[in-house]
Design goal:
The structure holds 2 protein chains of 2 kinds.
Chain A lengths: L1 H6 L3 H19 L13 H17 L4 H10 L7 H9 L10 H16 L5 H18 L4 H19 L2 H18 L7 H20 L12 H23 L1 E3 L2 H8 L3 H17 L1 H27 L4 E3 L5 H34 L1
Antiparallel strand pairs in A: 1-2
Chain B lengths: L6 H27 L14 E5 L8 E5 L2 E5 L6 H9 L6 E2 L1 E4 L4 H13 L1 E2 L2 E4 L6 H12 L4 E4 L4 E4 L2 E7 L24 E6 L2 E5 L5 H10 L7 E3 L11 H7 L3 E4 L12 H9 L3 E4 H4 L2 E5 L4 E5 L4
Parallel strand pairs in B: 3-5, 4-6, 5-7, 7-8, 12-13, 13-14, 14-15
Antiparallel strand pairs in B: 1-2, 1-16, 2-3, 9-10, 10-11, 11-12, 16-17
Chain lengths: ~350, ~300
């Protein structure tokens, strides 16, 4: 395995990323992280986060302010019960959970900004990862956030490498590390969901990719479509089994919503930062944020209004969930096998 | 190469399509929720609107002319923030006047949230204080943000844009001392600022939580109490809204700000039947959602979010 990684073109990347993930895991293992319920992150960073939250509430109307606070720092406490219910019924509440996907978005947009600077790939990755760790500390470094950060970094790496084999291996290493540190995670739903979503991205993503060639690439529509559908498939058995609900509207809601989120987060973050210094300027940028966030809020509200958008009260036995999962894994394995034999056959023909 | 094949043109086109989509979806959402909204593109509203906001069991009323606002009470929790977000123009973070009719929690709690988030230019409050935590939060925020405070009944009139808010009675004028009756009648409720809002020829009578005692003294004090629109006192409770008072006001429309399934039994059957008997068109926030009265100064139009 190491030989393969060592010989691959993305060698340095993989090594650095593994080192970072190990570092993050070490931070959590050494108890540098506060125990649950008692969070005492570094003062300056925490103060900055608090200032950011205040700035958001001073520059944006509701529910925009609560939504942006949730997107940037996690948690749905700032959202009104009505709007939270709309988010739940459209299957978009995960946006406020500071999930791996959420953090990967932050990392990716930060990386895109760095792209404009004359930096080596390695330097860029080092800076982004350091920023990720700072971000994790700034929002309180709860264990779930640390795990999400690890998953987020992995997601970015998976995208960079773009090969299921290596990504799969990295996921395996990360999951093993986390389970060694805290074995009780086996029963943790959010952990299982993010692992399932990652597996979906790595293995189901490439399979469904050819079907989306005609979808436009702008605003990351194609990329988001593939990722959402892959993640929806992979997490469906678990979600139906635990919540007994299935939202028909979840997929279109996510497809419509996701492309706007990086822009909303980006503009919102800049506006909030400027709003700390000057409220008047922050409010000016706040107008742009309001319009972009307003789109997402309108999508959620509109789709939540669709009658019969979800089935509630599904009874799904554990056996059915296992069968569904096994079926999915089987399909993926078969597909990979057939692709492999196709490649092999192609090589044979070429030789002849 | 034709111009529409050029990458730059395509980029611009996609941008326009995306922008159209973004605004279109929001417009559709607003149209479906029937929220009064001037939007980002229109410059100024040609008229004034008064919205009895649906904030559950409490009072929150927004009078708005273009980008100038009077907010009267804030309801029992943070719900008012979302209502304001939908009603106020995008980017407007200034409220010209905030009125606290009386210091009960279902009127002051939301206002404290508003003070923390918006630039409030001026505050008008009754001269009877309360000694609850929410009231202290509100009072401390006013001190902290150095907001100028006017006290009724000393202050008799407030003017915001073309809107005039006349204080008919309030606080110590009603003989209220700083004690509250733990009941439904009298006490701080009677310390309510009762205000008449004028816009052109139109008049809106906003009762706060005033009860029949206040109605009696109002009838003695003023010969002309007529108003086209009446915000019924005290969430339609049985201690407010007498027939004699309605005869004096002669409203065409009445609004009751009340929460669904509240434990107080508001609104009272007597009040509902009385309104029906007198042929007054009545709306309730628990059934109609936001109740919006818009006027150009001459005539009145009512718009509600939903019909029961």
């Amino acid at each position: 395995m190491f030989e393969r990684i060592a010989n691959s073109p993305s060698r340095s990347l993989a090594v650095i990323s593994l080192a970072y993930i190990a570092g993050l895991a070490l931070v959590s293992a050494l108890g540098l992280m506060p125990p649950p319920g008692k969070e005492h992150p570094p003062l300056i960073l925490q103060k900055f986060t608090d200032a950011l939250r205040t700035s958001i509430t001073r520059t944006l109307p509701e529910p925009h302010a609560g939504f942006l606070t949730g997107l940037l720092t996690g948690g749905s406490a700032n959202v009104s019960p009505d709007f939270r219910a709309a988010l739940v019924s459209t299957g978009t509440i995960h946006l406020l959970a500071l999930s791996g996907w959420n953090i990967s978005l932050i990392i990716r947009s930060f990386g895109n900004v760095l792209l404009a600077l004359p930096l080596s790939r390695r330097a860029r990755f080092t800076i982004t990862s350091t920023a990720t760790i700072l971000f994790v500390l700034a929002v309180g470094a709860a264990p779930s956030v640390v795990r999400a950060a690890i998953m987020g970094l992995l997601l970015v790496i998976v995208e960079l490498i773009g090969r299921p084999r290596e990504s799969g291996r990295m996921l395996l290493v990360a999951v093993t590390l986390m389970l060694v540190i805290s074995p009780t995670l086996v029963g943790d739903l959010s952990f299982l969901l993010s692992v399932a979503a990652m597996l979906g991205l790595i293995y189901i993503g490439p399979i469904i990719k050819p079907f989306f060639k005609r979808l436009p690439e702008w605003f990351g529509i194609r990329e988001n479509a593939i990722a959402s559908i892959a993640a929806t498939f992979a997490t469906a058995p678990l979600i139906i089994f635990t919540f007994g609900r299935f939202s028909f509207i979840s997929l279109p809601a996510n497809l419509l919503l996701l492309p706007s989120i990086p822009y909303a987060m980006g503009v919102g973050f800049i506006g909030a930062c400027i709003g700390i210094l000057s409220e008047a300027l922050g409010r000016l940028i706040g107008i742009a944020t309001t319009v972009i966030l307003g789109y997402g809020i309108a999508v959620v509200r509109l789709l939540a209004r669709v009658p019969g958008n979800q089935i509630i009260g599904l009874h799904f036995s554990s056996a059915a969930a296992v069968v569904m999962t096994l079926g999915m894994v089987g399909a993926v394995v078969l597909k990979i096998r057939s692709t492999k034999s196709e490649i092999r056959n192609n090589i044979k023909y070429q030789k002849i | 190469m034709r111009f529409y094949h050029r990458p730059k043109f395509k980029k611009i086109l996609y941008g326009i399509i995306a922008a159209g989509f973004i605004f279109g979806v929001q417009a559709l959402d607003r149209a479906l929720s029937r929220t009064t909204d001037y939007g980002l593109l229109s410059t100024a509203a040609p008229h004034m609107t008064l919205t009895i906001m649906d904030v559950g069991q409490g009072d929150a009323i927004l009078a708005q002319e273009g980008d100038r606002q009077i907010l009267i009470d804030g309801g029992p929790d943070a719900t008012v923030l979302e209502k304001l977000g939908a009603l106020m123009p995008v980017g407007d973070r200034t409220i010209d006047l905030v009125v606290l009719t009386h210091p009960h929690a279902d009127h002051v709690s939301g206002l404290a949230q508003v003070l923390a988030r918006y630039d409030v230019q001026r505050v008008l409050t009754t001269d009877v204080p309360n000694d609850t935590a929410t009231f202290f939060t509100w009072r401390d925020l006013i001190t902290e943000k150095k907001i100028p405070v006017d006290r009724a009944p000393t202050t008799k009139q407030e003017i915001v844009g073309n809107m005039t808010y006349d204080v008919l009675t309030a606080g110590t004028e009603q003989g209220i001392v700083a004690t509250d009756h733990p009941g439904n009648s009298g006490g701080f409720n009677d310390a309510s600022i009762v205000g008449m809002l004028h816009y052109g020829k139109e008049k809106f009578l906003l009762m706060g939580d005033a009860t029949i005692d206040v109605e009696v003294s109002l009838r003695q004090k003023y010969t002309d109490l007529r108003a086209d629109f009446l915000k019924i006192g005290h969430h339609g409770s049985k201690y407010s809204t007498s027939e004699a008072f309605l005869d004096a006001v002669q409203p065409t429309y009445a609004a009751i700000s009340v929460g669904a399934k509240n434990t107080y039994g508001h609104p009272a059957w007597r009040v509902i039947r009385l309104l029906e008997k007198l042929g007054i068109i009545a709306y309730r926030t628990d059934r109609n959602g936001n109740i919006t009265a818009s006027t150009d100064g001459d005539s009145l139009q009512i718009q509600v979010e939903k019909l029961p």
